[in-house]
Amino acid sequence: xxxxxxxxxISVSEQIMPDAVAGIAAAGFKTIxxxxxxxxxxxxxxxxxIEAAAKAAGLQAVYQPVVSGKVKDSDAAAFGxxxxxxxxxxxxxxxxxxxxxxxxxxxxxxQGRPLPEILGATKAAGYDMAAVARRIxxxxxxxxxxxDATHTVVIIGGGAAGVSLAASLKSRQPELDIAIIxxxxxxxxxxxxxxxxxxxxxxxTTAKTMASLIPxxxxxxxxxxxxxEPEKRSxxxxxxxVVKYTALVVAPGLKLNWAGxxxxxxxxxRNGVTSNYRYDLAPYTWECVQGLKAGRAVFTQPPMPIKCxxxxxxALYLSADHWRRAGRLNDISIDFFNAGAVLFGVAAYxxxxxxxxxxxxxxxxxxxxxxxxxxxAHRAWFSRTDADGNKTTVEAEFDMMHVVPPQTAxxxxxxxxxxxxxxxxxxxxxxxxxxxxxxxxxxxDACNAPNAKTAAAARKQAPVVAHNLLxxxxxxxxxxxIYDGYxxxxxxxxxxxxVLAEFGYGGKLLPSxxxxxxxxxxxxxxxxxxxxRMLPPIYWQAMLRGREWMAxxxxxx
Length: 557
Known about the structure:
This protein is of the alpha/beta class.
């Protein structure tokens, strides 16, 4: 974290962590403003954590969240009013600092500060607000007739899906002009966080810099998306910049809605409340598991869709296996509260999973949705739905609780013309083209294809989109590539064994290996070795490098 001074009264910054707050106070700041909504990133602490650290350091902390790329004039006016009332100097932050700088620029312009002075101050802090100036000059609307950048292919998202697609396109057509838009500095191997929470992987092995993974020849635009204007083939970025494209691929992942559970953000990372769905919390899961000698462990699963639908119960299995090996299982009661009606959505894998549920003496509670948590009191509340649709509230005590938050498409997708009625990118499930917008494609967690949202799905989707996009650009006359809904969920049922679930649309089993080698419906040590030793290098060195091992797309007949 580095404070970037705009003037003597305000500095802006990228995302800060709670342990940085004492240094902010020592630097003389009096107030912290958070302009980033909770749950925007998988490595992001909640504002409640920052607020607690600020209080301990004698600072005032204020929460004014603004959706990425959605800075409205009313947001800027509210920022200006807030800023005027706060002790100074002020330290404002968001994901990259751009939102905070934009809010300040617009609020100052509305109060009559000359544009050259605004541009000079923000440029000295490292933020180019020239596009904001265009918006101000255009009466509050960002004009798209002038582009700040133009590329043949623009990919939204630098996660597993976006980087894999860029590499796949480059392997097919090396001269293709491609840009990836993503504000994140770090790229995470999120499938590894279950293993971190089980004490198997070091968290550092699941993270690499984004810059090290962008394929050679692909431009990285480090920014957040504000809006789409598909009729003008334009994307508007945070800071009001405009990027034009011939083909647009949308793969931003999904949003973890931590704030969707009352009281959760205030207690995450303490009071025994943890989650493998956040990079900095997965190690706390292992700490909680090791520290629990007796009591009650609660594991939760929210309504679908979620990324890696098996991950909530993977946490249960690895934790219970540790307690079994440590001789503590008889002293620990385990409860799995699942918002769904079944243990796993593909019936063929349920018998093997149920044997482990019985081995660990875990109690299953279906159609129970977590709604509230009181960490200090070690209590949680669930909404239970019975067979007739009636809802009641169920209270549960816990000594440790592993929480999986509800999940949605990112805000900038849900409000865009790309989204279906539920907020997901509206694609044809076979070709992954947008259903109504020419030149637009979707893949990964944010699209509405009815497949499992896993990295394995993205590995299969990327070659399909690459093929069909190049076909639409006239680079090939072959038939369409078809995605069959493949997804994989290696269910870590104990340390050393995995039930390797592989399936496609409609729950059709799509095993990658013959049954004599790995029978996916049964626990397997070989599948464990695949997960532990082979899949991470396959991810980093093959999938993200355009090497499509066992992922070549099928063509329509």
